[in-house]
Automatic annotation (TrEMBL), chain A:
InterPro entries: AAA+_ATPase, ABC_ATPase_HisP-typ, ABC_transporter-like_ATP-bd, ABC_transporter-like_CS, MetN_ABC_transporter-like, P-loop_NTPase. The lineage of its organism: Bacteria, Bacillati, Actinomycetota, Actinomycetes, Micrococcales. This is ABC-type polar-amino-acid transporter. GO terms for molecular function: ATP binding; ATP hydrolysis activity; ATPase-coupled polar amino acid-transporter activity. Its EC number is 7.4.2.1. It catalyses: a polar amino acid(out) + ATP + H2O = a polar amino acid(in) + ADP + phosphate + H(+). It comes from the Bacteria. Residues 7-251 form the ABC transporter domain. PANTHER family: AMINO ACID IMPORT ATP-BINDING PROTEIN (PTHR43166), PHOSPHONATES IMPORT ATP-BINDING PROTEIN PHNC (PTHR43166:SF4). The keyword Aminoacyl-tRNA synthetase does not apply.
UniProtKB/TrEMBL annotation, chain B:
It comes from the Bacteria. The lineage of its organism: Bacteria, Bacillati, Actinomycetota, Actinomycetes, Micrococcales. It is a multi-pass membrane protein. Belongs to the binding-protein-dependent transport system permease family. This is Amino acid ABC transporter permease. PANTHER family: L-CYSTINE TRANSPORT SYSTEM PERMEASE PROTEIN TCYL, MEMBRANE COMPONENT OF AMINO ACID ABC TRANSPORTER. It is found in: Cell membrane. PROSITE patterns: ABC_TM1.
Amino acid sequence: MPDTPMVVADRVSKSFGSNEVLKSISLEVKRGEVMCLVGPSGSGKSTFLRCINHLEVVSSGRLSVDGELIGYREANHRLYEMRPKEAARQRRDIGMVFQRFNLFPHMTALQNVMEAPIRVKGLSKAGVEANARVLLARVGLAERADYYPAHLSGGQQQRVAIARALAMEPKLMLFDEPTSALDPELVGEVLDVMQGLARDGMTMIVVTHEMGFAREVADSLVFMDGGVVVESGVPTEVLANPQHHRTQAFLSKVL
Amino acid sequence: MTNTAVNGEKTEPGIKAIRLRHPWRNTFAVVLLLIVALFVADAAMRPAYDWPAVGKYLFDQRISQAAFVTLQLTVYSMIIAIILGVTLAIMRLSPNPVVNSIAWVYLWVFRGTPVYVQLVFWGLIGTIYQSIDIGLPFTEPWVSFPTRVALSAFVLAIVGLALNEAAYMAEIVRAGLLSVDSGQEEAATALGMSWFQTMVRVIVPQSMRVIIPPAGNEVISMLKTTSLVTAIPFTLELYTRSRDIAAVTFDTVPMLIVASIWYLFFTSILMVGQYFLEKRFARGIGDRRPDKKADDATASVAGAMTGVIPVVGSGQPTVVLPPTDPRADSSKGER
């Protein structure tokens, strides 16, 4: 089913107690599409991203990836909460990159990349290692394979984290502010890797403040504020000619 | 090379300062040494210590056997305590309120009462429950045997020590698990790892760094707490055995010294073991870089050629002076 969208969010809401963080979000991400989520902090973009791989449980609405409902099974018009094992199986196909990298500090870069394919997919070590070295080379870190994360720069760590996510051969990649914790001169190397991924046809949802990246790489841009989608469209148009006053106010600050 | 002229003597004169002196440190050390020497000389002559008796009993077979029993008690009860402690720690962190409460009550009871009292209780268990029955309640038991036969004093000693220790280990392990950044669990979960895999592969290895120092403390503490199992009563461990010998020979002080030497010997071994464990679990944390030597080698070669090279790994490009200049060499050494 190549025509079905990769991600479909249908009136997704999420509350923490009485605090409603997401209010009826509806959007679609097509296969091979790169979508940038932008907006002020606290607007719910990261929460939405975390809902997509079930790190957060949606309060209401439907969220599906590749035609499969996330976190629930539907039978006889009723929803059944998934067992942790089933949720873990869904997450295998969804790669995630975090703001703070979250590499495993007690493993080398190579071991970080090899861990999930060996433990989760049960693949043989030799094949996984060969593939991991290819991935590290792809993010430009072939020579750093045996370094521990503490001895890598922030940009290098984030690139290892991207390689680690790619090792599971995901069909969708989620980036949660991947460059926000980096020194300015290290941002470029991470964005370059992400741009390469986009070129190779990876479906990506990127929460970011890098408007340059959004303009050049993204196929669509979604502006969120206060838990709702305020405006969305082609990045060049939204950035050049924002329609909503909240978008205008936000962009005037970050551009 | 022009670089040498620029970076050399004129622009960066080396600092040749007289180091800050600490005369009182030396004075204090000498005085302390004198006091210790006096004490040792005095102790060597004092008849109450009875050194020949110490030498005679140190390797007495009864003593070395008792020392072995003490070691067994320590090892067995610590193994059980660690397994139970990890289980309790995970139970305490469980979102399941039933499991959580069980662990809480366990800790409340076993941490809230003295280990000596607990050991006396375990000693009396054969009196309180005279037989162990396996079967359904209110029916004839399938199997029944007397408690005193099933549980020897040695077993009771291990059970008593282990159950008490588990409560303390549980809190140590819990602190260790909580010390790991929550992003680690998230990253593992996002990769599709199960909760158990996340624990075993990601959380526990990282928490070990926090757990080992206090756990080492507990092992050493346990080695000495074994002397309390006389409350059971179990009399074959090191302290009670040496007291028993002293009661017959009236060599009280020498026997205490003999026991102390054995305890110190075991403790020292344990401390060495702890050192290596800590080193093992500090992977990726300390300043160990796999190719550090290789880096230094290239640095000196490149330095000799160009005089200026950026140092890999540090945040800012650093200038290293060529090793031809003697002062530059010393500055590189301190880097």
